[in-house]
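Hello again, I could really use a second opinion on something today. I've been puzzling over a protein and I'd love to understand its fold better. I'm sending you its amino acid sequence along with the backbone structure tokens. It would help a lot if you went through both lines with me. I've dropped the whole record in just underneath, so have a look.
***
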Amino acid sequence: MEMNSSEVLLIPGLQKEEKEAVEKRSLHVARALEKLEIHTDEAPVIALLCSGGGLRAHLACLGVLSEMKEQGLLDAVTYLTGVSGSTWALSSFYAHHGNTEEVEADLKCRFDQKAWDLKQSLERAIRAARLESFSLTDFWAYIIVSKQTRELHDSCLSSLAKHVDEGTLPYPIFAAIDDDLRTAWQKKKALNTWFEFTPHHTGYPALGAYIPTTQLLSLKEKLKGNYLLAGTVEGKDEDAWLSAMAERWDQISEEEQGQFMEYLVRCFARAGPLTFHGDVRDEAMSGQEEFLHLVDAGLAINASYPLVLPPTRKADLILSFDFSAGDPFETIRATADYCHHGAIPFPPVEEKDLQAWSKAPSDCYIFKGETGPVVMHFPLFNTEVCGDDIQKWIDSYGTIKLADSYTQDVVLRLLEVSKKNVRHNKENILREIRNIVREPRKFKGVTEEDVDCPRTVGIEITNNTDVTFKEPLFYCPTGCVQVAPPPVLPPQSTISCSFVKTSPSSPACVGLLVYQGPEVHLALLFSTSPNYAHHSIEFALAALTGPITSDQLGSVFDNILQEKGSQEMKVVKCVLRAPRQTLELESDSLTIRAIASNVPMAKMNVVVQTKAT
């Protein structure tokens, strides 16, 4: 998508429209919980995640939604999000305004008739190809997905807003990843990789950078005169040729059919990718071109956990329905790794347990820790519903199988399996909801609700090493400590603290925090303001060796601010030009990473790890 930088919105925290929709949804959730005999003044945030898995995921997701509705559980869900094949099911769900009976009846009818309306699909593809916004998404939807699901939708994402705004349906989030940032994901599990679509905004949640969804296809001068369907095809009038293809598809030769499909692909290639302009990049995006290359989020994690976890959102309970063909715990494993890299609260996960469970998975696993969400994980094919025939079920519903092999009986069997997983675990789900209502979940660290954002800097440090850091020293010439740094930062622990600006004459909160280690000291510098225009916003990491005292902190601060590294001090600094940026520093023994941000409050989230050898 081609946009002027003024059209890119930098939105701190939740989007205004989403926040209002979620607040209204919470009233519906509270009423639904009352019907389930769970009484609460403040409804918990429950996120329903459905994994990818092609047509298998599409059908299983519809089964989950149908049974969740039947059991009164779907009305208690705040967020509904999917990846890959599950997004096909979510499209059906919202196109039918959440009426799961209609969705299921329509599904059975489509697979009973075993008919793909090729003529209609071709006509839609032809109409799309005449638009400047024609892209691979159109080709994929009208030719590939419609063939698999035997379904075509006229609705668009922004059209979902009415029911969502009223709170009558869960708030939908559709996930993708930026393919240009996949290397950053593979190396650092960077949240910046993730891209989301909602009824209101589309963009990078990690950067708080969005465009309104209604403007997603306002392609100003996109092709600069390159009209996709103008002229002739091998001497034929193009419109007449295309119409003839649709009308006489069953009668025309295979050569002409191939010519037609080749032409549609060529139209896509000429259209080029969508672009997204605006000064919204961080360090990880510095080499990115002006074009967006969005791909299936399943290439990162086959479930959109990052979009319902901090810093984007804070789900108290995550219901994760896994339809993967491989290891049913890979999404848990990958999410735990992502959260470890980003110091995001997530329940502890033991690899030996995941490996043991994957050999004969049960139908429900519950992960919980002292902080962060409770995660309930439901493998599709499990010993409770499949007995000893799990592999047989997996083989029967392979990811790459075409819809032609799916009879109505095959579809109904898969629907029933996914429904049983919900029915069997209704009481488990209700029990965890009651536990959360009785004792709400906590999310560690300083949050924007805890502090006066314009004047405060929050710091969170996660120590993933076997080293103990202690005796913190701090230098804050324009303010003071608000939440004191703990005296000790033990191994495998997380601490938080905050500093507040008190000098009315200073436009910024400026300071330095040093935690002392046996060999290497950890130093964090901040110089922040609530407004980019008023003051240069800078964050820095430094690794120091040798003794240090409080009297030296002023000169150390100046050297770090000026990036004057030495044999005794390694420094990395950023001048914040986007809502969030990343920093990384290596000493002889440590790797230090930080996410620095200034919306909705100034903060540093730091992770210290032992340097890989």
Q: What stands out?
A: Residues 107 and 130 are 30 Å apart (CA to CA).
